[in-house]
Request: fold
Amino acid sequence: MPNLEAPLRAVLSVATLLLAMPASAQKAAAPAELLRTDHEAGRPGGRLVSAVRSEPKTLNPVTAVDVVSREVVGRLQADLIHIDRQTQRAGPALAKSWTVSPDGLHYTLLLRRGLRFSDGHPFDADDVVFTFRCYLDERNASPQRDLLVIGGQPIGVRKLDAFRVAFDLAQPYAAAERLFDSLAILPRHLLEKAQDEGRLGGAWGLSTAPSEIAGLGAFRLKSYVPGERIVLERNPYYWKVDSAGRPLPYLDELVFLLVPSDDAQVVRFKAGETDVISRLSAPNFDILSAETSGGRRLEDLGAGLDYTFLFFNLNDLDAAKLPAVARKQAWFKQTAFRQAVSAAIDRAGMVKLVYQGRATPLAAHVTPGNRLWLNTALPRPQRSLARARELLGRAGFALENGQLRDATGAPVTFTIVTNAANAARVQMATIIQDDLREVGIQAQVVPLENRALLDRVLKSHDYDAAVMAVAGGDADPNGEMNVWVSSGPTHLWRIGAAAPMGPWEKEIDDLMQRQLVTLDGAARKRLYDRVQQLVAENLPMIPLVSPNVLVGAKAGLGNYRPAILDPQVLWNVDELFWRPGATPRP
Amino acid sequence: MRAPGKLALAASVLASVHAVALGAAFLAPYGPAEQARALPYAPPTRVHFVDDAGRLHLRPFVHALVDDESAAGRYREDRSQAFPIHFFVRSPAVLGAGEGWRLFGVDEPARVFLLGTDGFGRDQLSRLLHGARISLFAGLLATVISLGLGWVLGTVAGFYGRGTDTVVMRAADVFLALPWLYLLFAVRAALPLHLPANQAFLMLVLVIGLVDWARPARLVRGLVLSARERNYVRAARGFGAGDLYLVRRHIAPQTFGLLLTQGALLVPQYILAEVTLSFLGLGVGEPVPSWGNMLAALQRYHVLSSYWWMWAPGLALIPVFLAYSALSEALQSRVGPASP
Reply:
């Protein structure tokens, strides 16, 4: 594309000028307290192109909720304390350090001095206090607000001086420093007016001029072409330097191309139009790996945090409204029945057929990707038809001419609903169907459009069983509270229940609440280990497999260290650089 | 080609295709839902006549497939042992096919997949044959329904004319204007989740047939309209012939040629309709095969690009369509114009 070359070169020279100026400006003023990274020192320059599946809905960190918006916003903004996506541990970011009071109720964060937003405006404690005012303001309907309300009380935020901020919690909260991750610090000078007028939620849409958006992230907005691309440019005021003391980020530009389907993303990556790819499906990963000539590095990072599971409808149903489902719940609510189904399922077969070996069978909901919290004492799930038959026999089921019947003589049949658009889940449901046939259970797979599926599972409760997945956002168990506490909104198999299903579920509730307020890490681990054991034994849902995280990048991308936490490839985009000889973009 | 020869050729090709579909249980080496989980996406099995030593065998043989360690998802032949193909084997009952005789088979652990396997290690050839039953007969049955209904309504409209004609033909307009694909989505959504394969098949056939009666009805009506004004019909009426007698004796015979040619045109259309609907997940569900739900696997890029044998149902459609199109042409030249 020769006609594109001239304008891009012009842009590059402007960027180089900008690069030289602020570093010297900062040195002349007070010594800015920059963060020095200890990874390989790279070369500045170049452009990185990544694909996104849909357009971001907004660039507003307070209201961003979808994956794509958060991925883009995360590159434009920075947080006080950041979870290293590779080590899964919290570390300093805009906060240089922090202290916790012995009772765990008071956090004091020390901010870096001499930092500037991407428009050059200085940053201090007022911005932090303002930021938390925005997140906690109910008018803004921020999805993060729930996290910041602990023990029914919003977190208290006090400015101690220009670079010290105190946070007060109503009750102890384990690993509270992790709450600060991904809470973008907002520029008060740009947003205070909107916040005071109560229209912050609508601020910073995609049509906002780039000059009105600023942040502390590695990049700043350059341009947006609707339906096509978002271009970010290097933030000259960024607060990190590499091991050689050179300012980060290295890349001049970061481009997000809109490529709606997975298969199309693979084709674009194959054609060299994008430089990195994440969330690859196993078959596509194998296709790309088979063509090694293209100068690409594909990596299988092993088990991620997502877990796929089969669950039965355990809701307390009105038998008059849904008589057919209510009748089948007599089976579903028996632990032995669920254990038998679990024993009959060929998880190894799923790993091979659906994921070409790139997945791990699960005994409970915590995946091997979650190194810090996995209960390694749990036995690996083994398929055993003999055990399944024995469990069913003891629970009063009998096999007649290949058809399983319950104590009343009714044949055991049910439907498994799943998301039609997710080929892997439909395949897993089909494997379960075939597995259960061997113990005499007739299961029917019904792929549904996603909205219809969620409607049945979350609202009407008109389904027998479903195959779904939960995407683990953070490794910490606090992120799983909404799934595992019996009153939680994502307790998919039994939503809005008045009381736990049995003593074991009551114990899970207690354990989850206790780990939330236990400050000692080892004690928390013991509590969560017990939760996993109870899940594996009682199977409120039947864990199936955890797919591996599969990513790829062009060869020559330095500091490329993909991680299983989101965003898998771009989490350290501030350190990524093109090696000499790699084909950097103009 | 001479029309009678063409007719005979097309008819015999179609007859044998349908006979093969009917004989699926005997011709298919495996059950259509039988999974060989160790062998997903296995390529078509090579049938050997000459062994590694160069000796010629009269009885063909195959080798067992094993995972090729050098590349994920690839297979190689384990040449240490040959498994001869047996003919007329007795097989036990498996899912989707009862106990009975099979045309050919091999001893385990070897397997004979002449058209490879799908993502679950199911034999594509067996699924193709069993799927043909559903796809081909869905086309035939839907044609019978749509022509039957169209003939009755078209004859009534044409024969009685006036008010009756207006009502029937306006109804036909409405049916022609229906967005039938969306209608079908709506019908499927209203039905219970659990729909056994045979009911799903019937639903499919009924919907295709019932929605599409309007076109044959229009054609039949035109013929009947002109027929009832012929002098010999008027004469018969003058002699006191009743409506039923007139239709049976004078009018209906004139429409049969049209029905035959229309039928030959509609069957492939309806086969395609079944394939389309199953492709979109509205047809018979897993694990029962139909050509449409087999082709649905091709929606995925890696299947489309890596496993050519998954195209088999699509390729099988071509000769069937060609034969039907030749049949309708031959019929047309034989019995007169298909449409007035």
User: Anything to note?
Assistant: Chain A is about 30% helix and 20% strand. Chain A has two domains: 2-295+555-578, 307-547. Residues 1-28 of chain A have pLDDT under 50 and may be disordered. The two ends of chain A are 11 Å apart (CA to CA).
